[in-house]
User: Fold this.
Amino acid sequence: MLEFGVSGYPFCIMLTLKSAKAASACVPAPGCAAVPPQRCRETLVQLYGWDSRSSTWHGPNEFTSGKVPWTRLLDALRSAPGQSWYGPVNCCSRREPATRFFALVHAFADCATAMIYCNESKTGPAEIVAVLPAQRRSRLRPEFAFEFLSFARFLGSVDAGAEFRVHDAITAAIAEARDCDSVVFSIGSGLWPCDREHVLSECVEKIAVTLLEWLGER
Assistant:
């Protein structure tokens, strides 16, 4: 049993997750049976997401795993003691001033999570992200979809009526992904303004790429 929390800020978070279990049966997708995950660094990252404002599921949005990670965030994660990090991240889109977010990151045996908060937010995260690296997918806990969704529900990022739909979508995405691809799930709470959604989306992608790099080094 693993717990972590953050205090000294306008909010306090406690997350409890079971340790990862080894997969008892893993059937490779067609065409991937002979390709070990460690040889797939230049394949795809599959990004899926749930938008609580519009109650829509989207993805996969594909991008190569060779994207450059966020240097400042990666350096901060490398130097952080233990498996958790909390701090500011500045995101910007082209020809726009930087937007200040705060991210709470934690690494597990089979994945990593990040909660992205608006600047000085006291109402909850704008986005919750989970990354599943290809190298660790064989160790993914069977309860991942349930635990991730339960945590998002606890933080108020998913409505009760959408739980089963999002759970089934996450489970299906994991089952359909190739063994050599990494998978990212993002849940938007709807707290971020619609007209600034592109900035948050850019931030989510950068953080996801950086977390994948960080986990690959551990």
About this structure: Residues 37 and 180 are 5 Å apart (CA to CA). The radius of gyration is 16 Å. Residues 36-217 form one domain. The chain has four helices and nine strands.
